[in-house]
Amino acid sequence: MLRRSAPFAGGRNAVVSWSFLRRCIGAGSTHDLHSRSMNTARSYDIAIVGGGIIGLATAQRLITLYPNLTFCVLEKEKQLSTHQTGHNSGVVHCGIYYKPGTLKAKLCVEGLDLTYKYCDENGIPYKKCGKLIVAVEDKEIPLLNNLFDRGKMNGVRDLTMVDKKGIKEIEPNCEGMFAIVSPNTGIVDWAQVSNSYGENFKKAGGDIYTSYHVNDFSCATESSRSQSKEEGLTHPVTIHGKDVPAINCRYVITCGGLYSDRLAEKSGCSRVPRIVPFRGDYLVLKPDKSNLVNGNIYPVPDPNFPFLGVHFTPRMDGSVWLGPNAVLAFAREGYKLWNVNLRDLGDALAFRGLRKLMYKYFTFGVGEYYRGIYIAAQVKQLQKYVPKLTANDVIRGPSGVRAQALDVDGNLVDDFVFDGGVGDLGSRMLHVRNAPSPAATSSLAIAKMVAEEATQRFHL
Ligand SMILES: Cc1cc2nc3c(=O)[nH]c(=O)nc-3n(C[C@H](O)[C@H](O)[C@H](O)COP(=O)(O)OP(=O)(O)OC[C@H]3O[C@@H](n4cnc5c(N)ncnc54)[C@H](O)[C@@H]3O)c2cc1C
């Protein structure tokens, strides 16, 4: 389901101002920006806020479609792809799980093919190491069968079902009764893919400004136009950054991940769907145990719970991650248990939708915290699939934070949500408010959809 609810001057060949550039990219950053002078007035046709995989895929798509328009990407961190895009499982999903007919299902299936093609064309390594979804108890077998049918309905290719013996042939250390085999599921470094979108965007003439924290948007009115009459008329939207010069543009697209709701609010959109951050902690197999698995091993997801369950995921560097769990994070970018942001926490707890969700999943939530703290408890879950695994085989690994969109009734908003706003400003904004997992896999397909939406809304 798709829901809709002091200026610069510049052109494509402006000269770089090093002092500003240092502030923009941080000295020595490998994200060398397209050379630009930022001490003179600057304006663009379209500014894209958010340098994660969705913002960069969208930027790349739009500049290809509209080479005569000018584009910039504004990212608050020193580097691109730092948040969800740089903190995930690294799986190229095949699209089994999602309800047939939804955009999530369609875009994932399409996104997998587009991803492999893009990686081939751009020299990005990936591995089609495949995936097993394993039923370990009788009661999971009907669910596994449903999942298999769902995958077929979604158009997932080459799915097969194997029994205990078939599981052993693929994963000698894995125990299970039956498993779905998805040979086209793969792994890739999503940050590398996303940064490559950024490079292609720059090659096509786009500008990327890192360390550009967007604070607010305003739209020129008749009175404000007197300051810079011509700019006000042609590029009426002003983006106000924190300690950086403002940027003028005609239209704005926001792809703000964990801050997508707050960015949308700035152009008069509703506060819901609200983003609630859910942290996922990974364990990592000790290097001498990395050969315990060959590919991805996933449980049969419990339909009563919103997340996929902890899994075994090989990484491109040869390591194997186990997880992630799902616990409420106390800060939107809180990668550690003790990271607390009072505004984020207060905002989340004051939201009726989260309280309802917590009430509904209270026991599950407590279990997730417990397993997050006690490694042995998490390992016990994983031993159902690989009995040889012991707590001595793992160490604590990194974490990621999911931008989970919630409605006021505590339901997880599962599909993409576009929004605009009201008035002069709202009609020039397109907010991508929810791009849930597997949005990395679907990024190129999502970008096509965002570009179509922008074309329609902005009459490009
Ligand atoms: C733990 C975890 C595991 C996952 N596993 C997978 C997987 O295996 N496969 C898969 O396909 N997907 C996976 N996903 C989902 C996928 O990573 C995300 O859906 C995707 O990365 C979202 O990209 P994004 O660009 O919307 O968000 P982000 O990557 O979070 O990017 C948003 C960007 O906006 C910037 N921003 C925010 N506010 C501002 C502002 N005011 N000014 C300027 N910039 C701003 C942020 O700094 C950030 O860089 C996983 C996600 C998580 C968290």
UniProtKB/TrEMBL annotation:
Q: Name one Pfam family in it.
A: DAO
Which SUPFAM superfamilies does the entry mention?
Answer: FAD/NAD(P)-binding domain
Q: Which reaction does it catalyse?
A: (S)-2-hydroxyglutarate + A = 2-oxoglutarate + AH2
Segments passing through the bilayer: none
Q: Which spans of this chain does the record mark as coiled coil? A: none
What EC class is this? oxidoreductase
Keywords from UniProt, A to Z, are: FAD, Flavoprotein, Oxidoreductase
Xref: Gene3D superfamilies: D-Amino Acid Oxidase, subunit A, domain 2 (3.30.9.10), FAD/NAD(P)-binding domain (3.50.50.60)
Q: What is its EC number?
A: 1.1.99.2
Q: What cofactors are annotated for this protein?
A: FAD
Q: Does the keyword RNA-binding apply?
A: no
**Could you give a GO molecular-function term held by this entry?**
(S)-2-hydroxyglutarate dehydrogenase activity
What is the protein name given in its UniProt record?
L-2-hydroxyglutarate dehydrogenase, mitochondrial
Q: Which organism is it from?
A: Exaiptasia diaphana (Tropical sea anemone)
